[in-house]
Amino acid sequence: MKRMKYVTAMYISLSESLGIYTLDQLYELLTNKQHSMPISRHRASIMQSRIFFFCAIFAVLVPVWSLIDLLFLPGELWRELLLIRVISATAFALLAWQARKEPDLKRARLLLAGMLAVTPLFYLISDHWLQAYELTGTEQVVAELYALLPFVMIAGLTLFPLTLRELLSFAAPMLAVVVLSSIPQTHNEIPQAVSTIWLFTLILGVAMFASLNQLRYMLSQVNRASYDVLTGLLTRRAGIEMLDLQYRLTTMSETHLSILYLDLDHFKSVNDIYGHDAGDVVLKAAAQQLCATVRKGDSVIRWGGEEFIVILPTATPDEANDVISRIMSAGLGLRPDGKQVTASIGIAEIQADDAHDWKTLVELADHRMYTAKIQGRARSMGINDSQLLWPDFPAAGIEKNYTMDPAPLGAES
């Protein structure tokens, strides 16, 4: 019983040190399956920048170290080691060059795997050559330094925000290399082999804790910056990154991309009459309805105030209208007086509008949303002035029957 309490206390202490308070937070550290696009992009950017830094340094230091080999090791051995040093330096230089490309999580993982693979392979080959020579004194000391290479690389994992699954997959080959190279040939070598493997495991544990702690901190910071506190939607800043990414993906694949620009009708009257708390309730309900209605893979952004943008990857104008029809049928919640929340919606599509950047798409959708407001609100305005009306709302006279604010219509959205 006491042992269970002790284990439970240790688990709670470890969880709190990593900032884990829910099962979802724990799952985020185990695998990246629930990581959002902003998190994946930010993590890829960090990983590639650090891979570039390390590979650039190793590309210089690895061949420079041959000067030490030249001073202390036999000439024939030095030439053999120089060859593999040149090959390793070339590999590091290529990895550094690839790390300068656009951040991508898959690319970042492959580059990290490549960086971690070069050093163990270098160690295995160099150790094979070193064993072929009878080294003594200073020569033996220099040779022993090669055995530290796997430890250096496993310690380097502390600088990368990795999930537990990723970290173990990267560490497993290096652990195998250490175990393989530590297999005792005689009974007297067993203590040395055990201590080597134990030291590697200890460093791996420290690297695991540091990497997960870094990932947990990064997740909390990115979530705080990327998601609106009130609605839980993407913030404008994160939304801009998403728009830029989706636009580039669309232009590369030559597919469709539609966006919706929504502005809640007469929202100012809710704040003026019922207060901002009531307005927050309306905004939150509208956001939840949008997320529940759009397609899987679509992104909803709180663009500002009561304005929202919905990104519809691969959606043609007709498919965008289908999404709008679902939004209108499902509704966006109720105002404090029990009436429906409606929105004026503008549509833009990359091919139909011949948009040359995502900013043009947003400007076109914004303009059409404004046109929808002028023509009576509670409707969408699409390409070629096509319209969809909110159910149960007439085509005209909406302002007269619906507005609660005696101020002129131009004074509110």
Automatic annotation (TrEMBL):
Its cofactor is Mg(2+). PROSITE patterns: GGDEF (PS50887). The keyword Transmembrane helix applies. GO terms for molecular function: diguanylate cyclase activity. It comes from the Bacteria. Its EC number is 2.7.7.65. It is an enzyme of class 2 (transferase). It catalyses: 2 GTP = 3',3'-c-di-GMP + 2 diphosphate. Keywords: Membrane, Transmembrane, Transmembrane helix. This is diguanylate cyclase. It comes from Amphritea japonica ATCC BAA-1530.
